[in-house]
Amino acid sequence: MRHSLIALAVLLATALGAVAPAQAAASRVKDIADIQGVRENMLVGYGLVVGLDGSGDSLRNSPFTKQSLEAMLERLGVNTRDTDLKTKNVAAVMVTAELPPFSRTGSRVDVTVSALGDAKSLQGGTLLVTPLLGADGEVYAVAQGSVSVSGFKAQGAATSVIKGVPTSARIANGAVVEREVAYAFGTEPSIRLSLRNPDFTTARRIAEAVVKQLKGQARALDTSTVEIQVPPQYRADIVSYVTQIEQLKVTPDQPARIVIDEASGTIVIGADVRVSTVAIAQGNLTVRISEAPQVSQPQPFSGGRTTVVPRTDVQVDEGQEQRVVMMEAGVSLQDLVNGLNGLGLGPRDLISILQAIKAAGALQADIEVM
C-alpha cells in the first residue's frame, strides 16, 4: 500500500512584487489567424475497393457490401440478383477528402479510404469511381485509384502480427475536382481575420500592427475577429495587400494555463505561469508485506509431522529523505520546474502538487484537466 501525503504551507499569500511576463517569440499573422471565408470544405463518399487478396468483406456479415456490388454490376450490364455471391475480394469503404479553398475544376486532392465492414486489409486494392459530396449534397469531386496502406497484418494458426491500421488507406491526388465552390474574394471593402487562439490582447496587437506598419485602418471587434479596411489602391489587387498583412510580426498573448492529462500523466505548463511564495513538502509512507513460508520436516521415525511455518517480513518506509522545497514569489517556469524536480517526484505526484498549490491560492494560472 502506498499513501502520498502532501503538506502545503503558504508563507506569503500575496506576491512580493509584480513580475513582467516572459517575452514570447513574435509570429507572423498568417500563423496565428485565418482570413474569414477562406477555408477548406469537407467531402465524403461511399464506394467499393476491389482486387483484395481474400481480405475483403464477408458478404454474409456485410449485406451493404453485397447490395453495392450487385448494384454496380447491374449498372455495367451484369445481372447477379439470383446468384449467391461469395467473393471476399471486395470491401465497402467511406472516402473522405478536404477541398482546398479556390480549388479549380480539374485540380486534384488527396483522399482517405476507410473500411466499413469486416475487411481485414485494404492492401493491394483499387477504389472504383466514387462521387464525393459536400454538405449541400452536391458532387464536388470524383475519386478513383490504387489505395496505399501503411499498415499490414500477418496471421498464422496460433498468432498474428498487426502494424498500423491495414483497414485505412490513402490515395495521393486520388480525386479530381468537378465543381468549384463559389466565393467572390476581394469584392468586400474590408477583410476580417479570425484568430486561431482567441484573445483580446492578441487581436488588439494585430490591429495596431496594421495601423502602424501598413498605415491602414483596422480594429479588433472581439477576442477572435479583427476587421481591416482595404485601401482604395489595393481594391484591384487584394492579394498584394493580404500578403503584406500575413507577413506582419505580432507577439501573441495567452492566459497562464496548466494543462493536465491524468490518463497519461502528461503536464504542460505555460510560460506565464507564476507562483506566490510557497513551501512544498511531500512525504511517502510505503508498507511492504512479503510472505516466505518454510516447511518444517521432522527426522525419520521421530513420530513428528510435517508442518508449514509462516515467515512474514514487514518493511515500513516513511520517506525520511524527502525534502521541503521553497518557491519564492513570481518564480519563472524554469524555477518552478526545477523546484518540483528537486522533490524527485513522478508525474502523478506533480499533478497532485499543482492542484494543491492552486487550491491554496498560490498559483496564478488556470488548470485545465483533460
UniProtKB/TrEMBL annotation:
Residues 1-24 form the signal peptide. GO terms for molecular function: structural molecule activity. It comes from the Bacteria. GO terms for cellular component: bacterial-type flagellum basal body, distal rod, P ring; outer membrane-bounded periplasmic space. Keywords: Bacterial flagellum, Cell projection, Cilium, Flagellum, Periplasm, Signal. The basal body constitutes a major portion of the flagellar organelle and consists of four rings (L,P,S, and M) mounted on a central rod. Assembles around the rod to form the L-ring and probably protects the motor/basal body from shearing forces during rotation. Belongs to the FlgI family. This is Flagellar P-ring protein. It comes from Zavarzinia aquatilis. The lineage of its organism: Bacteria, Pseudomonadati, Pseudomonadota, Alphaproteobacteria, Rhodospirillales.
